Amino acid sequence: MCCKHISSFGSMLMVTCLLGMLLSCVDNAEEKIEQTTARRPVLENLASTVIIPGYENLHSLLSKLDQSVKNFTAGPNAENLTSLRGDFMDAYAAWQKVSFLEFGPAFSQTLRAELNTFPTDNFSIDNAVQSGEFSFTGFSTQNRRGLPAMDYLLYGVADSDEGILEKYSTDSNAENRKQYLLTVSQLMLTKVDLVYNQWLPTGGNYQEEFIQSDGTDVGSSFGEMVNSMSQYLERFTRDARIGIPLGKRSQGVIIPRNVEAYYSSQSIPLFQEHVSGMKDYYHGKGGSQDSKGFYEFLQEIKAGEDERLAQRISDQFDLILSRLDQVPSPLAETIRTNPAPAEAAHVELQKLVILFKTEFSSALGVLITYQDNDGD
Amino acid sequence: MFISVIRFVLNGWIKTQYIDPEFHFSYYGFFWISNPGEAGIYLLFTIMALTSLGVTLGLFYRISAVLFFISFTYVELIDVTNYLNHYYFVSLVAFLMIWMPAHLGFSFDSRRKGFSITQIPYGYVLIIQLLLSMVYFYAGLAKLNPEWMLEALPLRIWLPMYSHLPLVGGLMNELWMAYAFSWFGAIYDLSIPFLLFYSRTRPYAFIAVVVFHISTWLLFPIGMFPFIMILATTIFFSPKSHKKVLSHLKSIFSQKGFLNPISRRTLYKTNYQKLIWSIFTVFLIVQMALPLRAFLYPGKLFWTEQGYRFSWRVMLIEKAGYAIFHIKDKKTGREWEDYASDHLSAMQTKQMSTQPDLILQFVHYLKQRWADQGYEDVEIRAEVYVSLNGGVNRLLVDSNIDLTQIKDSFGHKTWILPY
């Protein structure tokens, strides 16, 4: 009898619970539709203050660079070389701030590989210049173009500035080399133009799609951003820029020549631009405007056991930047002679990767694959 | 089941789970199970599809049931990281189905043999009922832990993901919803077996089953499981209610002149009845004991996951990890790093990064790989950070220990750091 009472009580309870849940759903139905999720403002802000202005800036600096390339090839003198190099570095720095956006148009256009595959294949570039036959189609040629190729063409073709100027004036292959430089510049501009226009409401309007998919599944904008960012952080921020030169992926044998911007020796300043660009993206900050980003979102949902996850990630970005400050330029030389400061920066980068892969992903609840799971 | 197989194939999971990965995690004691290669896998899936149809239609039932059990279980045994409680459940039921006379009524076999069985000993039904009860009960028992009941973890992390849903979306950000879901889930799991056994509460209980599983299906990526459970619980209903449904079905078929078995009131008999009852008894004892083995290990179960699988512990924890493998060539003293994502699929990487036994397996695989490349004597340490239920990430295993020196066993893994 006792059992009967308990179980009928149980079923009553359950039925009541169920009804209650259903009713409460119905009650709140209208309210719900008006409520926007906390994710949407983040998406709107990231698109309008960080991503699109980022591409816009890169686009205009690449146009400027292209003009400089034309000036330089028309008049290969010291003055034009200096101003070309300045414009090149500005464009390279602008690239750093959007490099990690490996989703949407940038992903479908393989923008990273097109613009920044390093180390560049200087031998193939030399061969092409010598023969006058340029082949820029296919994945296998990505390491002969983009910013790293230009880095070689503007800083690495000879040991001195005079030597470099000779390569573009008196050298027997000068015309071919100029043509190569022009083509590399053109290709970059075309690619970025494509990606930039796909984001614009007047173009492909990817912005709209980006803001609309405000869920957390694999195809959602949050899913894409978080997955692409943590993958970029592992492969390109940590490994390509510092881990691989340090020999972390080559059985402990260092490969200093594999640093980014090897010929111009600007690896560290560019690295800093890259990390601060990522930090701005995380904060939803573009120029002087600082609005909703992941930081604000994490604060809103009180993420982390200590409710301070937002701040801990931000602090980690700062820690990396200060470690990078302590790495003497050029990075390649530091790795050869005194790797300790570079190792220290690598350790802090590793901690950021860990934060992203563990607490950050958990807090945002993004899925990594479409596969079923039962949560264990 | 047939639908399950088709769904698996259509989603392209055969390729991502069985053909692409260069390495598969074995179950302890099942290292001899190997991936049969692309053709082999497709063959296994074909067998699975055909035999699941055979079982459903009652066509060559016994052989179909045996082959289905073998092919399904084999595929599941290939890689631990694909382990899902509901696949395990399917395997168990498939095993029981082998011994069942489930093909002798409303089936092609009964038509072929020209006779039909209308009654079977209650034991055949009871064993499925008991298995289901255990699934629910142990799942409920596992929920009775401080995190689930008192902190609504991990549901309070998961639910806000659904705040974009229409109608219920806004509720998902409410903390009380997480508590309501947690408590309701626990009460549901613990009480539902009893409510299903008791005839007066059964209809209500079944409504609860349907609502519960449909809502979990809507919220979580758990695939076919809800539907399997909903259909499975119908076994609690009396033969009368089943016959009512069946007669509806039959009338549809007979109208088309499709099926018209000769009805005779016969009780199923077999010469091996005693053997079957003993198999069932052993099965039940094992099933009752397995989930309890976790209590034999010291430490926090959710952290160490020692004895976690095969225990109906579902949707209990949110875990995210990241593993760095430090390789040291003892000959030259050179050190470098290795990462799972270079060798494993995203799913494998995720699972490996939070489960100590898989970390150990992977370390041994890495050792072999480096040996193949000429680094015969390497030391491998694993620096693995894990966030449990959104907590601050911390080291899962001792990062100073050379894991190549450690062999897996059922013993307590002392190299797991305490939580």
Automatic annotation (TrEMBL), chain A:
<keyword id="KW-0732">Signal</keyword>
<dbReference type="GO" id="GO:0030313">
    <property type="term" value="C:cell envelope"/>
</dbReference>
<dbReference type="InterPro" id="IPR018976">
    <property type="entry name" value="Imelysin-like"/>
</dbReference>
<dbReference type="Pfam" id="PF09375">
    <property type="entry name" value="Peptidase_M75"/>
</dbReference>
<dbReference type="InterPro" id="IPR034984">
    <property type="entry name" value="Imelysin-like_IPPA"/>
</dbReference>
<protein>
    <recommendedName>
        <fullName>Imelysin-like domain-containing protein</fullName>
    </recommendedName>
</protein>
<feature type="domain" description="Imelysin-like">
    <location>
        <begin position="51"/>
        <end position="342"/>
    </location>
</feature>
<dbReference type="InterPro" id="IPR038352">
    <property type="entry name" value="Imelysin_sf"/>
</dbReference>
<feature type="signal peptide">
    <location>
        <begin position="1"/>
        <end position="29"/>
    </location>
</feature>
From TrEMBL, chain B:
<keyword id="KW-0456">Lyase</keyword>
<feature type="domain" description="HTTM-like">
    <location>
        <begin position="1"/>
        <end position="241"/>
    </location>
</feature>
<feature type="transmembrane region" description="Helical">
    <location>
        <begin position="176"/>
        <end position="197"/>
    </location>
</feature>
<dbReference type="GO" id="GO:0008488">
    <property type="term" value="F:gamma-glutamyl carboxylase activity"/>
</dbReference>
<dbReference type="InterPro" id="IPR053935">
    <property type="entry name" value="VKGC_lumenal_dom"/>
</dbReference>
<keyword id="KW-0472">Membrane</keyword>
<dbReference type="InterPro" id="IPR053934">
    <property type="entry name" value="HTTM_dom"/>
</dbReference>
<dbReference type="InterPro" id="IPR011020">
    <property type="entry name" value="HTTM-like"/>
</dbReference>
<feature type="transmembrane region" description="Helical">
    <location>
        <begin position="275"/>
        <end position="296"/>
    </location>
</feature>
<dbReference type="GO" id="GO:0012505">
    <property type="term" value="C:endomembrane system"/>
</dbReference>
<dbReference type="Pfam" id="PF22777">
    <property type="entry name" value="VKGC_lumenal_dom"/>
</dbReference>
<keyword id="KW-0812">Transmembrane</keyword>
<keyword id="KW-1015">Disulfide bond</keyword>
<dbReference type="GO" id="GO:0019842">
    <property type="term" value="F:vitamin binding"/>
</dbReference>
<dbReference type="Pfam" id="PF05090">
    <property type="entry name" value="HTTM"/>
</dbReference>
<protein>
    <submittedName>
        <fullName>Vitamin K-dependent gamma-carboxylase-like protein</fullName>
    </submittedName>
</protein>
<dbReference type="InterPro" id="IPR007782">
    <property type="entry name" value="VKG_COase"/>
</dbReference>
<feature type="transmembrane region" description="Helical">
    <location>
        <begin position="204"/>
        <end position="237"/>
    </location>
</feature>
<feature type="transmembrane region" description="Helical">
    <location>
        <begin position="120"/>
        <end position="139"/>
    </location>
</feature>
<feature type="transmembrane region" description="Helical">
    <location>
        <begin position="41"/>
        <end position="74"/>
    </location>
</feature>
<keyword id="KW-1133">Transmembrane helix</keyword>
<feature type="transmembrane region" description="Helical">
    <location>
        <begin position="86"/>
        <end position="108"/>
    </location>
</feature>
